[in-house]
Amino acid sequence: MANPLLEAPTNSSPATAIDLSQKASTFINSQSSWLSAIPYPLSLFINTESQEKWQTYENLFLACLRTGDDNTAYACLESLTNRFGKGNDRILGLQGLYKESTAKNDSELAEVLKEYEEILKNDPTIFSIRKRRAAVLRSMGRTSDAVTALTNLLDQSPTDAEAWSELADLYLMLGSYEQAIFCLEEVVLVMPNSWNMQARTGEVLYLSSEKLEGADQLRLLSESMRRYCRSLELCDDYLRGYYGLKLTTDRLLELLSTGKKSQQSSSDPVKGDLAPPSIDAVKKLNELATSKLTEIVRRSKSGEKGWDGYSEAEIIAARELLDRGTQKIER
Amino acid sequence: MAIAATTINILGIVFLSHAVYSAYEHSLLPSSSLPTPPSSILPHIIDPKINLPLDITLETLFSVFLLCVGVVLSSPELKPIQWNVWAGRLERSKEARVVKEVGVGGGNPYAVLEERPGFLDIRGRRKEFAGWVREGER
C-alpha cells in the first residue's frame, strides 16, 4: 500500500509538495484524538507511537515550509519538539530550517547564522547544525566560506558521504574539477555500491575532459567510461549510465581513430593509470549502449508493464542522443 | 496460476485426509489384528508389522506429492537477490519504488547523496515554489 505521506518532499515537484502540504491539517487533526489526553499511568497501555507517524510529521513540516504554509509547519515542528525534546540534533536542524525560511531579509538570515555559531560554540559535535551552517553560507552566496566549513566538517568526520557529495557539488560550481572528482571518489569509497554516484563521477570526469587535450583528455575519458561501466554493472537498465556510456564512447571513438600512436603510451603505470581501452572494446561498448538505449526508449514509450519508472525528460534526452547518432551515419 | 495451485492444494488435502481415514478404518478391521508375515526386505527393528493395502500407501504418496507441488506453485514470487537486478528494477518501474513503511520500499537508497536533505536549501526551494505558483496563475 502506497503512502504519499511517507515520501520525502525534498526533491519532489512543486505539485506533489502542495498536494502533501494540503494533507497536513487533516493529518494533524487525526492525531489529536482523546487517546492522547489520557493521564500518565493509563497512557502507558495505549500505543500511539509509530515510526510512520513521526516521519510523516517531518515530511509535512518540510512540505509546508516549501509551500510557504508557515503556521502548519510550526504546528508540526512543535509536535516533533514535544516528542523528541529541544536538545535533539535532528530537531535543532529542523528548528534552524524553520528560522531560515521565515527570515525576511539578509540581516535576519545573518542572525540565524550567528545562532548556529553560538550553538556550535557550546557543542561542536552537532552535525545537523554544522551542515545547516554550510547550507546557509552557500545560499547566501559565500561559497568559499561554505567550502571551508565543509572541509572542517570532513576533517572531523571523513566518512560522511553526504558532506563529501555536497563539497563535490560546491567545487563543481566553482569550476575546480580536480577537487570535485577527488570528493566524488571519496563518496564512492564510503559507499561503493551507489550506482548513481558512480555515474556522477563519470559525468564530472567527462566534463573535465572537455577542457583538456591530447593524452590527458584520453585518460580522463577512458576513466569516465570505466565509471559508467561500473554503474551499469551495479544496476541493470540504468538509463543515465547508458546515456553516459554512449556519450563517452562516441567521443573516445573520435579521439582514438584520429589520435596518433604516441597517445597510446601516455599512461603511466607507476601512477596507477590504466592503459586506454582498445578501439574494438570501445566500439563494442558503444554498440551495446546504443542498442540498450533504443530498447529502453522503445519500451518506456510503449508503456510496457514495469517500464514506467524513467523520468520523461531523461527519455527525451536519450532519444535526442540516439537521433544525433543516426543523423551522423546518414550523412 | 493461483487458481491451479489452490486446486492442487485442495485435491492434495482431500486425498491425504482420505488416505489417513482409510488407514484408520482398515486398522479397525478384524483381519488387520492377525499376525503379519515378517517383511522380507526391511530389517526386524523397523518392520511396521501392519498389512496396509497397497492402494492406501499409493494414495498417501500421491497426495503428498500433490501438496508439495501445490505449495511450491502457490508461493509468492521470489525477490531478486542480485544487486544489479534489484537496482535495475528500482530504476525501471514506479511500482518497485513505492514507500510501504519507514525503511521498507522506496527508490534508490543512494539518491540522498544527490538530494542531500541535510543541506537542504530551503530558501531556494521556497523561491522556486513561489515562481511555480506565479507561472500557474498566469
UniProtKB/TrEMBL annotation, chain A:
<dbReference type="InterPro" id="IPR039856">
    <property type="entry name" value="EMC2-like"/>
</dbReference>
<dbReference type="Pfam" id="PF22890">
    <property type="entry name" value="TPR_EMC2"/>
</dbReference>
<comment type="subunit">
    <text>Component of the ER membrane protein complex (EMC).</text>
</comment>
<protein>
    <recommendedName>
        <fullName>ER membrane protein complex subunit 2</fullName>
    </recommendedName>
</protein>
<feature type="repeat" description="TPR">
    <location>
        <begin position="161"/>
        <end position="194"/>
    </location>
</feature>
<comment type="function">
    <text>Part of the endoplasmic reticulum membrane protein complex (EMC) that enables the energy-independent insertion into endoplasmic reticulum membranes of newly synthesized membrane proteins.</text>
</comment>
<keyword id="KW-0802">TPR repeat</keyword>
<keyword id="KW-0677">Repeat</keyword>
<keyword id="KW-0256">Endoplasmic reticulum</keyword>
<feature type="domain" description="EMC2 TPR-like">
    <location>
        <begin position="107"/>
        <end position="193"/>
    </location>
</feature>
<comment type="similarity">
    <text>Belongs to the EMC2 family.</text>
</comment>
<dbReference type="InterPro" id="IPR011990">
    <property type="entry name" value="TPR-like_helical_dom_sf"/>
</dbReference>
<dbReference type="GO" id="GO:0072546">
    <property type="term" value="C:EMC complex"/>
</dbReference>
<keyword id="KW-0472">Membrane</keyword>
<dbReference type="InterPro" id="IPR019734">
    <property type="entry name" value="TPR_rpt"/>
</dbReference>
<dbReference type="InterPro" id="IPR055217">
    <property type="entry name" value="TPR_EMC2"/>
</dbReference>
Automatic annotation (TrEMBL), chain B:
<dbReference type="GO" id="GO:0034975">
    <property type="term" value="P:protein folding in endoplasmic reticulum"/>
</dbReference>
<dbReference type="InterPro" id="IPR053279">
    <property type="entry name" value="EMC_subunit"/>
</dbReference>
<protein>
    <recommendedName>
        <fullName>Magnesium transporter</fullName>
    </recommendedName>
</protein>
<dbReference type="Pfam" id="PF10270">
    <property type="entry name" value="MMgT"/>
</dbReference>
<keyword id="KW-0812">Transmembrane</keyword>
<dbReference type="InterPro" id="IPR018937">
    <property type="entry name" value="MMgT"/>
</dbReference>
<keyword id="KW-1133">Transmembrane helix</keyword>
<keyword id="KW-0472">Membrane</keyword>
<comment type="similarity">
    <text>Belongs to the membrane magnesium transporter (TC 1.A.67) family.</text>
</comment>
<dbReference type="GO" id="GO:0072546">
    <property type="term" value="C:EMC complex"/>
</dbReference>
